Amino acid sequence: MKLQGSIVALVTPFYPDGTVNFDRLGQLLDWHVAQGTDGILVLGTTGESSTMSHEEDDAVCRYTIERIAGRIPVIAGSGSNSTETQLEKSVKYAKMGADALLCITPYYIKANAEGMYRHFADVADAVDVPVILYNVPGRTGCSIPVETVGRLAQHPNIGGIKEASGDIAYATQTARFLSDEFQMFCGNDDITVPLMSLGGSGVISVWANIMPAACHQMVADYLAGRCQQALETQLRYLDLIHALFMEVNPIPVKEAMNLMGLDVGGYRLPLCAMSEDHRAKLAAIMKQAGLDIQ
Q1: Phi and psi (nearest 5°) for 77?
Q2: What average pLDDT does range 16-22 have in this prediction?
Q3: CB 32 within 8 A of CB 67
Q4: Which sign, positive or negative, has the C-alpha torsion 88, 99, 54, 250?
Q5: Has residue 1 got a pLDDT over 70?
Q6: Element containing residue 41 per DSSP (H, E)
Q7: DSSP secondary-structure letter at 14?
Q8: Which sequence spans correspond to the domains of the chain?
């Protein structure tokens, strides 16, 4: 797959009436390329795809692929708790030109080990682009068993895992399966450097929405062997990273982007604006981190 570095888990910008703001989406995509972001993930958790229609998902994916035009890789979030829906979306986005697909564990339904395996393997059998497993039990209520990760890592079309459990012990066990054909990407900004020490290839990042150049440089430093510099960056911005999760993602990061003048709009219910206390705290931490806010 040869995918590494800082991959932004991109927000979906909305107009005040709640429709997708494609003009702003295009500006964000161009900005990320200019800032050194190594890849784009659309329709992930941060992109609010769970509250968007399938038609909106398709339009955002198509627009992103066309706007990026091969400048950096595009990963499309095609996951669903229904394997059939995940398969349908995955085939569609692969045909659109996505460079990889992010497929999530079957939330609410959960599934036993064999069902979990087939949930991913059936998609990987049907597409000609790499599938990245998305393990985020805090969101889904289920985790991919380590043994199942090992089985899936042997599939020729499964290229890696986004590990977002926050559990270093789980990540350590998963690291045993890493190879040139199966990579691990950190899904928690606050432990990017620790997960890269286990062999991770980079981060799928919320933080990169507001500081893409810094996130790119931190990962690039680690990959180049400048581990101490990468660690210093991780620690320098730790308070800011934590502030981006003081309420459920993507509420704080969208608020931060709006404070920076990036004008990404609001949210889809049941997400709504953060509390005034949290907003003031976020603004103060952003200022301490050296960000200009309006």
Answers
A1: -75, 110
A2: 96
A3: no
A4: positive
A5: no
A6: strand 39-42
A7: B
A8: 5-232
Amino acid at 128: D
d(CA 48, CA 13): 10
Q: What is the mean pLDDT of residues 181-203?
A: 97
SS3 76: strand
pLDDT value of position 30: 98
Q: Which residues, in sequence order, are CB contacts of 69 under 8 Å at separation 6+? A: none
Look at the chain and count its residues: 294
Active site residues: 134, 162
Average pLDDT of 155-172? 97
CATH T-level topology, domain 5-232: TIM Barrel (3.20.20)
Among 79, 224, 50, which Cα is nearest to 162's?
79
Please list the residues that pair with 204 across neighbouring strands.
7
**C-alpha closest to that of 210 among 5, 3, 2, 11:** 11
Q: What is the pTM of this model?
A: 0.96
Nearest to 257 by CA among 22, 16, 19, 24: 24
Backbone angles phi, psi at 88, to 5 degrees: -60, -45
Residue 188 contacts residue 166 (beta carbons within 8 Å): yes
Q: d(Cα 164, Cα 183) in Å, to the nearest integer?
A: 14
What average pLDDT does range 215-243 have in this prediction?
A: 98
